[in-house]
Amino acid sequence: MELELWNIFQSSRGANATMILSVTIGIWIAARFASVARENDAPVLMKAIISIFALSGFAFGWMVITRAVNGWVVQATALSDLRESGTELSPIATQYVEMYGGDFMTNPGLIGMAYLISGLLIALLPLWLKDNK
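User: That's the sequence. What structure does it adopt?
Assistant: Structure tokens below.
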């Protein structure tokens, strides 16, 4: 049964990777739009639209990465429940439960937050701040 839980967990990781890739592409698109808008001295309305896109991408990324991280918690809970039913877990599964067991997360963790915040700033700061030329 433990092996089946690991297989289910592994199959969900592909979907998570695809979603996180979409977040990365969204950050790149927002930064590219901001760069082009700045080069062409875009009007405020265009800057506002790009800013809304970047902020929406940030919120989407926050949700996606948080859900991906919570997949680890779900797996740890499933393994813990399996252990409580009397099944002996492998040493790796036991360590996994100790590391990721607990409550669901409401944020993507420090690395995820740093990634998303820096991506947002890469898109927004050049768009709204002027050069010192």
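Residues 2-128 form one domain.
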